[in-house]
Write a structure and sequence with these properties.
- The structure holds 3 protein chains of 3 kinds.
- The model of chain A has no long low-confidence stretch (mean pLDDT about 95).
- Chain A has one domain: Ubiquitin-like (UB roll) (Roll), CATH 3.10.20.440.
- Chain A contains 1 helix and 8 strands.
- In chain A, strand 6 and strand 7 form a beta hairpin.
- Chain A is mostly beta strands.
- Chain B is of the alpha+beta class.
- In chain B, about 30% of the residues lie in helices and about 25% in strands.
- In chain B, strands 1, 2, 9, 10, 11, 12, 18 and 19 form an 8-stranded mixed β-sheet that branches. An 8-stranded mixed β-sheet of chain B has the order 6-7-5-14-15-16-13-17, with helices on both faces.
- The model of chain B has no long low-confidence stretch (mean pLDDT about 95).
- Chain C has 14 helices and 23 strands.
- Chain C is of the alpha/beta class.
- In chain C, helix 10 crosses helix 12.
- The chains are: A mainly beta, B alpha+beta, C alpha/beta.
- Chains in contact: A-B, A-C, B-C.
- Chains B and C meet through helix 4, helix 6, helix 8 and strand 17 of B and helix 11, strand 23 and helix 14 of C.
- Strand 1 of chain A pairs antiparallel with strand 3 of chain C.
Chain lengths: ~90, ~350, ~475
Amino acid sequence: MIERSVEISFEFDGKNYPAFDGETIAAALLRSNVLNIRNAPSGSPRGIFCVMGACQECVVEIDGIKVEACRTSVADGLIIKRAHDV
Amino acid sequence: MNVIFDIAVIGGGNMGCGAAIRLAEGGMRTIILEQGDIGQGASGVNAGTLSLQIKRVKLMPYAIKGHEEWQNMGAEVGFHKTGGYTLAFNDREAELLYERMTLKKEAGANISFVSDKELIEKEPALARKVVAASYCGDDGYANSLLSGQYYRKKIKQSGISFLEKFKVIQIRENSDGFEISSGGQTVVAKRLLLACGGWMKDIAAMIGADLPINARINTVSVTERAPRLLNSIIGHATGLLTMKQKENGTVLIGGGWQGKGTPEQGRGNVSLETLIPNLQLAKFALPKLSKIRIVRSWTGFEANVPDFYPLAGRLANKENVFVLGCVRGGYTIGPYISKLMGDYILGRQPEMPLFDPSRDFK
Amino acid sequence: MYDVIVLGAGPAGANAALEAADNGLKTLLLDEQKVAGGQVWRAKSKSILKAPSTEASEKGDELRTKINQSAIEVKFNSRVWHIEKQDDDTWLMASDAEQLTAKALIIATGSQERIIPTQGWTLPGVIGLGGATVLFKEHMMVPGRRTVVAGNGPLVFLVASEIIRLKGTVAAVVSLNNRIDWLKALPSMLSNPSLAWQGFKWIFKLYKMRVPVFWQHGINKIEGKEKVEGVTVIKVDHNWHKSDQAEQYIPAESVCYGHGLMPAIEATRLAGADHHYDELLGGWVPTIDKYGRTSVSNLYACGDNAGILGVSVAPMRGRMAALAVLEDLTGKKHNKKDLKIFDKAKKIGLAATALSIPRSGLQSFITKDTEVCRCECISRREIEHEIKTGALSPNAVKSGTRCGMGPCGGRYCSESLALITQHISKKTRSEIGLSTARSPLRPVALDDISNEIDYDKLPIPGVSPL
């Protein structure tokens, strides 16, 4: 049996999602089946890819700074924006 | 190889390629020998700034002509005439700015001093700490990354031979002219044009010439794509900051901060000691950069001589050896001065005077 | 000033640090993850309070306990973005705004996944095989409801069997390797029965669960508009070139795929070490002696970044590198007995790598319109045009097309670029070379690099000549 921590809630791109306290943004979004995390400069949709902080595909914006969703923990009430380029 | 070229150009950067094209047009059978890839040395890694405001007074006529050349090359080299502001953040810099820009204006650059209001209107993201600013509408930038692509195409069109990954290790003079060897291959040419930037001193030494060349190692950084922060190119009264935001949203940060390494050791390395103040200065001038990520910092060599003027002419006591390079602001002037150099080698009268490499540098 | 800084706290790096600290060296261990363990012994997320243990979690816990009990100083969540040799031959590194110095530097950055594009590989729902293992180990979750697992090397079967263990559904396994490739690897794996047994256990499990296994097949296209909806698979020839046989469609919600591991060499390259291409070791590797000494003084490499040999030899490689540091810094000779065990264990690692070596036909999966550079969205067509007009080095192609100039720093396109260049120019990988290594090792925000400055204290050197 897997026992997980308490459920918290965070906001991504204007919508609320549940998460287990202490997990990464990427894991929480994947659990909610949110696969499309950003759009590349060509417009093509992108999601979690390398899951180890190298490929930069899963970047999201927190307080205006781009961070990798796969290595950033969620927190209760955290507001995460979709990363926009130009 | 039994072909004897009229001239071998050592160095396939903007200077060498530009001169080679002129020489080929003038009927010379020309070959370019490049140790790496065409246009990938200083020509391909500099910040691409085309600013009359950072040009030296005496070189202004050449820089103005240089700007025309870049404008003509246009989209293929990523040319953008954006206009440019030079900023002063304290009284000392304001004084420096006023003194320098006045002289540059007198030398023919279209420079004016601008009010705080105008600056804020045009560049609202800049820090509200500017004490004085000048503007030049002719300023802009080109994309140095495209140098290789551009010149590779042009030299092919001109029927110029070129060898990449040809690292010259020996030059021997014989009755035909010069035998230039990379170890594996040998090329024979009647004349030589040395246009190899930071590597010039060593190459010149191979034919017994001692040129007083030093290499500066300039640092450039680029950010990830960012929302529009700048419309024009930005400079600093001391010359220690250049910034521009390219069309794709990335911001290029330069200013001639010195990295580490020598041309003999490779491409040089970024030094933390200078990279950090360089970025701090950029952040100071453009606070919104704080939250933007740097994706790459690199270095490129800029050769110079003690008086910081170009070397462009015939070597003393060497009838058939010419030198071109070592210009402060060589990226801007390159496409023009290389034409002058081509003309000179072809025996024509250059439109403007060249810079004798055997002059007294003191 | 530390005696030694170890970059990377996986099995190799952590053991290097343990050995160094046990021998009295002032040691700092750095990792970008939250805790030690690397990818292979990656720790569970804090959100998992209780879960059945696995071999990886036990080994990882054991390692983390040892580190806690040692004299090692640790710094996690630390991203070294710059490495520089100082004039006095010591090392200077930057981790965010912090600067760290050491007499010796051991680089143990592990591996990175090789993923060669196919149509649709940028769709959300497609993740690397290595990435999938992170989901299993750290989050105990599966990548999606119906997953196609594809590619080559042992990871394909590991990932498929883990999905099943975690109660997910494997729609199909698509292996470029055929059964004969596996049988060929068997003899050298037999010298380590547990590893061989594991591999076959994975395959057996899949058959038992009636998971369709497509041997000697590749994914021709990943279908979907906004996310993965399915894949088409196609038979490949011996070189893994796409055949002209009919494709088969498999509906799926996620795809895990990859083409083996490559040494993660950005750090050793930035530090200036010589590298060479060795297919058997996973590609470009730093040129090292048996102990991990690189061509640069006081710079060492151990673990998969010094050649993919896997976890069985990683701890030993770490310890050997630490002993080399000890000898070079203090003159203390060490027991060389380890070397024999190492040579034996190395064979096993090489056998696993043999299944992972990409073959030339893989380039046939990269269609003209496929975005090779994910960051800058550069297609194969653009790259080919650049190469055909004379850009024969990675630096030249990069410069002309922007392929590899985005935030990932070319990590996920340089391999494809080399394959395409090789296909067109017929040059060897050594001749093609690599593009220049530069800082930062990972994108870093300006605010994270430096604090606010006092303008008047900026070290402004003399102004440029007028």
